[in-house]
Design brief:
With about 260 residues, the chain is α+β, with helices and mostly antiparallel strands. Helices cover about 45% and strands about 20% of the residues. It has a six-stranded mixed β-sheet with strand order 1-8-7-2-3-4. It has a two-stranded antiparallel ribbon with strand order 5-6. The protein is globular, with a radius of gyration of 18 Å.
């Protein structure tokens, strides 16, 4: 199939919007708060390459790490070893291999491989997207990030893997969850962010535009079974990835975009 047709199926604005609407639905705040990627994706279902690379992430670590520090370690290693590039949409094993080989990786690719590293390191994780409405072409389409649960703080906190970010109230103490961020934003209160990777160049204006000043709506990515998607993407690798995703939607095995419905 020609490259232009594959681009059309994957990236054309009209088809993108149709797919987005089909996958989107409202959900209660309680459902979103209680959902966890780990509930669907077990350690035994994660591809072997994640276990092979995992020791490299923690090879210089001495002593036990907090959940926040463990999540930061994974994110730093990914960001420092993957230069990023075009979106992939491959199975989790192939995506990680391509990313390590310098063959691509956008924010959603980082978020998805981060999910699997969290699972094998006993970190509760979920993946979020931001639907950004803006006249700025560079902001349209949105952004992907994660939340990890901290047992020490007994709360979820945002971690942006592709940009190496945590978010805080104006006096940094405990990192913010997505609900904390939305509450502060809606109350016109100040939000700060901090880069935890010295090798990551911080674009403060873009981060502020995406997360804080833009008209944006967060949505949780639910029902993503990594084992199922890997199986179909690998077996049907002769088809464009959007076709495989469409097939899984028709089979009732697709992920969903759940927008928390605030009271």
């Amino acid at each position: 199939m020609s490259r232009s047709l594959i681009w059309y199926l994957r990236r054309h604005p009209l088809l993108y919007e149709v797919r987005f609407r089909l996958l989107s639905k409202n959900a209660s705040v309680d459902r979103v708060e209680n959902f966890c990627y780990n509930n669907i994706n077990k350690t035994a279902d994660i591809p072997e390459i994640y276990f092979e690379l995992n020791p490299l992430i923690f090879e210089k670590t001495k002593g036990a790490l907090s959940d926040v520090d463990k999540a930061k370690k994974i994110a730093i290693w990914l960001r420092n070893n993957i230069k990023g590039g075009a979106g992939l949409g491959k199975s989790s094993e192939i995506a990680l291999i391509k990313m390590m080989n310098g063959e691509g990786g956008v924010c959603s690719d980082f978020s998805q491989v981060f999910n699997n590293f969290c699972v094998i390191n006993d970190l509760k994780v979920k993946e979020w997207g931001l639907k950004v409405i803006s006249n700025d072409p560079s902001l349209k389409g949105g952004h992907a990030f994660n939340e990890v649960y901290s047992k020490e703080f007994q709360k979820w906190f945002i971690i942006d893997v592709s940009k190496s970010l945590l978010f805080y109230p104006i006096n940094p103490t405990i990192p913010l969850s997505i609900f904390d961020l939305v509450t502060l934003k809606n109350g016109n209160e100040k939000v700060s962010f901090s880069c935890f990777n010295e090798n990551t160049e911080l674009d403060c204006k873009r981060i502020t535009d995406i997360y804080i000043t833009s008209n944006s709506a967060p949505f949780l990515i639910t029902n993503y079974c990594n084992k199922t998607y890997d199986s179909y993407l690998n077996k049907l690798n002769f088809l464009p990835e959007p076709i495989v995703h469409g097939l899984l939607f028709l089979l009732g095995k697709s992920y969903a975009f759940e927008f928390p419905k605030y009271k």
